[in-house]
Amino acid sequence: MNCSVKRFGILWLSFFSRAGLWSSISSHHLKSFFSPLLDPLQFAYRANRSVDDAINLALHFILQHLDSPGTYARILFVDFSSAFNTILPALLQDKLSMLNVPNSTCRWITDFLTDRRQCVRLGKNVSTIQTISTGSPQGCVLSPLLFSLYTNCCTSSHDSVKLIKFADDTTLIGLISDGDESAYRREVERLVYWCSSNNLELNAQKTVEMIVDFRKVTAPSLPLVLTDTPVTTVDSFRFLGTTITHDLRWEPSISSLIKKAQQRMYFLRQLKKAKLPAQMMVQFYTAIIESILTSSIAVWYAGATVRDKHRLQRIVRSAEKVIGCSLPSLQDLYVSRTRGRAGQIAADPSHPGHRLFEPLPSGRRLRSIRTRTSRHKNSFFPSAVRLVNSL
């Protein structure tokens, strides 16, 4: 490819990506083109996929496994060092070619990533210009998709180990039975080897593990070691924006949401003092307060305690008193959003959760998901099936 064509290609991709126009012009085309090629357990930059889907599926794997006696789960939350900055354009091109991506598209992407010139500005000081041919530009809409394609071949080879990805957020879930952790540890070793072979650096200091174990009699678990560094075991972790605890209770996550919502109630009261019209206050509430209260509501609401649901609803009632009109209840919002999400998953055969919405021979109802514990029963997929069947 000659210099003028290459320069035009770089300017074209760079302009649309950095100006935010890439999303409106080509994002849908890219998603529809690359989605069939991506690992089903990669949830980023996919049509009809969301952060909640990744969390719900991870919890379903764990809870379904824990329904059997003598089982527990080990969850490794992997952290990469400067993930997007480690992409090797030549290696990415090879990976794209293996996915049967057209040669012209491979070359355009490779040229976009190579020989990029950048500098750093701090106040009035500007560094010397450097030429970079590694990584993907920061803030580029294309970067998460390129990283997803770069790590597409990083998958688990064992049924009892699930590797869930959301762009560079990678989670390895080991479903342990009868104390046999050999498959889980082998997959951890494979992940470490794969990263070293693909120029990805694992940050062992920030990589943590959580053990979910409800057995009455437990034995101390041997710690994992990554690159000669023991992995820290934690009781809770903020997984894709939602706090997951080792006992799978939602109080910490709900308390955090309530605290944020209460802080924003101050501004609603100030708007009331300023005599803002009720309609505008409702809009403010919906955008600033309700959005916090309903953050990932399909993940945790069914499993929340009655006390926590009352705590959440009290904020809604307080907002109603300030505004002077009724507002949608959290129960209604949960039902509508869960049914809507269930409908989208059921209509998408490529979604990894699609098989869980299996219609009965009559076609009028879905087959119920068997559960043995209330934890599993109140998780997203069993609850969504019940809500769809109640229509």
Automatic annotation (TrEMBL):
Keyword line: Membrane, Signal, Transmembrane, Transmembrane helix
Domain Reverse transcriptase: 1-244
Molecular function per GO: 2-oxoglutarate-dependent dioxygenase activity; methyltransferase activity
Residue stretches spanning the membrane: 284-304
A Pfam match: RVT_1
Signal peptide range: 1-19
InterPro entries: AlkB_hom8_N, DNA/RNA_pol_sf, RT_dom
Protein name: Reverse transcriptase domain-containing protein
Source organism of this protein record: Nothobranchius furzeri
